[in-house]
Amino acid sequence: MKGYVFHGPGQSAWEEVPDPAVEDATDAIVRVDAVTVCGTDLHILKGDLPEVRPGTVLGHEAVGEVVEAGGDVRTVRPGDRVLVSCISACGRCRWCRTSMYGQCRGGGGWILGHLIDGTQAEYVRVPYADLSVHALPGALDGKDAVLLADIFPTSYEVGVLNGRVRPGDVVVVVGAGPIGLAAIATARLFAPERIVAVDLAAARLDAAHRLGADAVADAGESPEQLIADLTDGLGADVVIEAVGVPESFELCARTVRPGGHVANIGVHGRPATLHLEDLWSRNVTITTGLVDTYSTPLLLRMAAAGRLPTAQLVTHTFPLKQMEEAYDVFARAADTGALKVVLGEPQHDVVAVRPADGEDVGSHA
What pLDDT score was predicted for residue 114? Predict the structure, then answer.
C-alpha cells in the first residue's frame, strides 16, 4: 500500500509502505476512505516534534471501513463504516477511567501519526479499537464526518467546555482557522449573548461570520477596544485562544473580564508571558488541554442531525494519491484559501468546493 511518510524535517513523500497487520487482540485494520491534514502535521514536517521518528506515516484523522479486527474487539466488526479518532484509549489506566483519554498511560493518547504509523495511508492499524473508532451513522458523509476526528471535539472540549461557556456570555475566539471556527459553531449551542472572532485575515473573518460570529475584529487593529465597547468596558466572559503564539495568548489575558475564563486550545511552540502582576487579583481561570474525544459520540449524533456545520469548513478535496499536492495547498493557506483539505476515494480531480476562507491557525493534536 501507499502512505505519506515523514523522513525528517522538510522531507516527506507519498510512497510504498508495508501493509498494517493486527499486532494485538484489541487492534482493528481500517481501509481509509477519507482523511484530512492538520496543522500539527505541518509542525511535524518543520521538525517541531522531535519524538516523531523518520519513517512514520503521518495523520491522525480518518473515516473508513473495518477490514479486520482482533479477537478482543467487541464494538466493531469487518464491514463497519467508522470514524478513526485522533486519540487512542486503552480504557484501563487511571486517566482513561476518568475519560481523560488524551492522557492515556496504557499505550494510547495521541499516538497515530505521532508515535506509530497514522492515517494518511490506504490502510491504518488502530490500537484499542473499542474506544478509538466510532461507528458512523449511515446518513453522515465521510467528508464531513472526518472533521469529527479532531477539530470539532478539540474545539468543543478544550475551548467551549473548558471555558464554561454559558447562556448570555460574551465569547471571544482569537484565531478563525478551522479550530476557531469550530469553537464558534459549538459555542453557539450554549446561546451566548455575543461571539466575537479575532483574526488577521479578512477571508477567515468572513468565514467566522458565516459560522455564527456576531462581530469580527482585525487582530492588527486594536481588537481590545472593540471588545471593551461591546462589553461596557468589562471584557469577555470567555476568551478562547485558537492560534498558539505568545501574542494571541497575551491578547486573551488582556480581554477577559474579572471572574472570566481563558481557554487555551492553540499549540504553543514558544513561551508566552503570564502577567500575574495584572491577573492575580482578577479571579481569572486559565485552562489548557489536549483533546480527550469523550464528546465524539455526542458530536456524531449532532452532525447526523444536521446541527454542526462540518461541510462549511471543507474548502478543497483531493484523491489520496495527491497527498503531496494537498499538503502544499494546506501549507500555503494564506495564498490558496484552504481551511480543511479532505482526501479520499473515489475522486479524480481536485475540486475547490467553497470560497477561500483562510488557513488553519489553531490546529491542535
Answer: 97
The set of cell numbers assigned to 285 is 481561570
Angle at CA of residue 207, ends 187 and 193, nearest 5°: 35
Low-confidence spans in the chain with pLDDT less than 70? 346-365
Residue 270 pLDDT: 87
Q: Quote the domain boundaries for residue 204.
A: 152-287
Last residue in a domain, options 287, 314, 341: 287
Q: What is the pTM of this model?
A: 0.91
| Burial status of residue 277 (CB atoms within 10 A of its CB: 0-12, 13-18, 19 or more) | exposed
Q: Are residues 6 and 118 in the same domain?
A: yes
Which residue in this structure is represented by grid cell 503564539?
245
Phi, psi of 20 (to 5 degrees): -75, 155
Residues 269 and 302 in one domain: no
pLDDT value for 346: 55
**Residue 88: per-residue pLDDT:** 98
- Pairing mode, strands 81-84 and 256-264: unpaired
Looking at the structure of the chain, the number of domains it has is: 2
The strand pairing partners of 174, in sequence order, are 198, 241
